[in-house]
């Protein structure tokens, strides 16, 4: 048996049933199949680190190992959400020129889906 649609993460009971024929009794069998979420890593880079006041900085994040991942990434400065950007080919970018002078714990957070496990990463640009 080959499934035409992949199973989502979770526990699935797969059942095979033979109805029988004129010479054979019917029978059935089953298996419990556990499908785990695909683990990911999120990489984050800064276009300028360190940067200076009012300089435009682009943060680019990529989710691996799968480039077909859909969803979005949140770019955060500490607990403050700077932007939510849709993934395109497994990557997303956010640019800003409004970071204050100082150190900023920038994170890119990928929200987990039914088939993908999230993995945040931190970047500390100096200002």
Number of helices: 0
Query: What's the rounded overall pLDDT mean?
Result: 84
Helix content: under 10%
Helix/strand order, N-terminal first: EEEEEEEEE
Kindly state the number of beta strands: 9
Largest sheet: 4 strands, antiparallel
Shape: rod-shaped
Q: What is the rounded Rg?
A: 23 Å
Strand order of the largest sheet: 6-5-8-9
What structural class do helix, strand and pairing data support? mainly beta
Beta-strand percent range:
over 45%
Q: Which regions are unreliable across 5 or more consecutive residues at pLDDT < 50?
A: 119-127
Q: Tell me the distance between the termini.
A: 58 Å
Outline the structure in words.
- With 127 residues, the protein is mainly β.
- 0% of the residues lie in helices and 46% in strands.
- The radius of gyration is 23 Å and the shape is rod-shaped.
- The termini are far apart.
């Amino acid at each position: 048996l080959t499934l035409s649609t992949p199973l989502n993460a979770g526990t699935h009971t797969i059942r095979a049933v033979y109805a029988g024929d004129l010479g054979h009794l019917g029978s059935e069998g089953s298996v419990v199949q556990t499908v785990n979420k695909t683990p990911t890593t999120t990489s984050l880079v800064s276009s300028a680190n360190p940067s200076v006041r009012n300089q435009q900085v682009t943060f680019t994040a990529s989710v691996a190992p799968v480039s077909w991942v859909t969803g979005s990434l949140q770019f955060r400065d500490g607990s403050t959400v700077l932007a939510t950007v849709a993934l395109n080919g497994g990557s997303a970018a956010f640019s800003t020129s409004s970071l204050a002078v100082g150190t900023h714990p920038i994170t890119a957070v990928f929200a987990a889906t039914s088939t993908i496990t999230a993995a945040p990463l931190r970047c500390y640009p100096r200002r």
